[in-house]
Amino acid sequence: MKNTEIPRKKSIVLLHGHFSKLFFDTLKGQKTSEFFVLEGRPNLEGANITCRELIKNKITPTLITDNMAGFLFYKGLVKEVQLAAYDMDEEEKGTLCPIGGLILGVLAKKHKIPMYVHLNDKKDYLLLGKPKEIFSFNGNRVAPAGIKGYVPLVEWLPKKYFTV
Fold it and tell me: φ, ψ for residue 132 (rounded to 5)?
C-alpha cells in the first residue's frame, strides 16, 4: 500500500492518528477546504500533534471529540478519511491502527466515503492504556471512584473498510 494518497483539493477531510512528517509535507500548497481532526483520546495526539502540524503548514483545523465523527458523517460533512496506521500485515489483509479507526472505516463504508491509510513512522505504540487515563481530564477527576476502566489503544482494521 502506498502512503501517497493526499487529500483531494476542495475536500472535507477527517484525520485520525499520528501522521508522519511526509504526510504533512505533502499538504503544503494544497487547497483543501476543511480538516476535521479527532482529538485522539486518551493521549490527545490529534489535538496536540496533528493540529500543531497542520497549523505549521498554514492550515486551520477544526478539532472534534472522538465520538462526534458519526454526526459529521450523518450530516454529510465528511468527503474523505485519512487514517494514520502503525502496521500492515504482509498480505495486506488489514492494518493496525489507533482505536477509533474501525468505527471510522465502518462509517466511511456505510456512507460511501473513501478512507485512505498512511503508515506512520511510529513503532513504539502501546496496546492498552492505563484506566486512570480516562478517569481524569486536565488533572480533574471526571469519573466516580469505584469503577473499572478499559483502555485499548489500537485495533485491527480489515482491508474491506479502506480504499487501496
Answer: -60, -20
Question: What amino acid positions are annotated as catalytic residues?
Answer: 87
Which of the 8 DSSP states describes residue 7?
P
User: Residues 43-83: pLDDT tens digits?
Assistant: 888 889 999 999 998 889 999 999 999 999 999 999 999 99
Given this model, what pLDDT does residue 9 score? 59
Please report which helix (H) or strand (E) contains residue 86, including its range.
none
Q: How far is CA 141 from the centre of its chain?
A: 26
User: Which range of residues forms the domain containing residue 92?
Assistant: 12-127+155-161
Q: Is residue 147, in this structure, part of any structural domain at all? A: no
Report yes or no on whether pTM surpasses 0.90: no
The three three-digit cell numbers of residue 65, written as one number: 471529540
**Are residues 108 and 114 in contact, defined by beta-carbon separation less than 8 angstroms?**
yes
CA-to-CA separations, 73 to 12, 76, 90, 157, in angstroms, rounded: 11, 5, 31, 19
